[in-house]
Amino acid sequence: MKQLYEDLWISTPEFPPGERDPEVMMHGFLLKLSRGNVLISRVEDHEDHNIISDLGGIFRHYLTHWHEAGPGARLLQQRFNSALYCHNRALGPVSSFAEADDTFNQAEVHCGSLHVVPTPGHTPGSTTYLYASPYGKTYLFVGDTISLSHQRWVTVLVPESNEADLKKTLEFYRALRPDVVLMGTTKGHLSWQEVTMREWLALLDEAENSPLDLRQRPGE
């Protein structure tokens, strides 16, 4: 894992097996809260699990959507006795890998400072996490709702995506003022980006106008 800020780490890049595009990579993020460490998104690398242990472990693991579920989720639960959280509409697929300890279906504030906001569109259970760090920056964890594909901001459409819901989510994003955008999956680029307000609004416009449509693969 690599430290990005005083209270935030990013995992080793993961290149999921079976992907046709070798440049697709996934990341997870360890965030230090006053109550302890939480993990957001997916961390499968066992060496990263050891580093998480060195950093004090985790007491909660949050998924932004079910595509982040994998064998590592259960291993983390067992090793750190941590609670796994996801949207209730992601529960079925997540359960194939690990048993969720709790779910949510509306905006909530967890641990006194972590904003949990359902943002459907990419998947029905997609969720965004917003955190104003005491060190001065506001982090926005968007999962795969928006992403970078070779320097181009995109939305990501999969068979279960809903374009109307995604449009509403992007409108909601425009009311936010993050300093750092953190993504679960990207292609050919790191999974985080510092932004100004002007850059944030511009990248949302670019993403909305640049859908990466994976609903039908070549040959299907």
TrEMBL record:
Pfam families: Lactamase_B. Keywords: Hydrolase. It comes from the Bacteria. Residues 84-184 form the Metallo-beta-lactamase domain. Its EC number is 3.-.-.-. One of its GO terms (molecular function) is hydrolase activity. This is MBL fold metallo-hydrolase. It comes from Erwinia aeris.
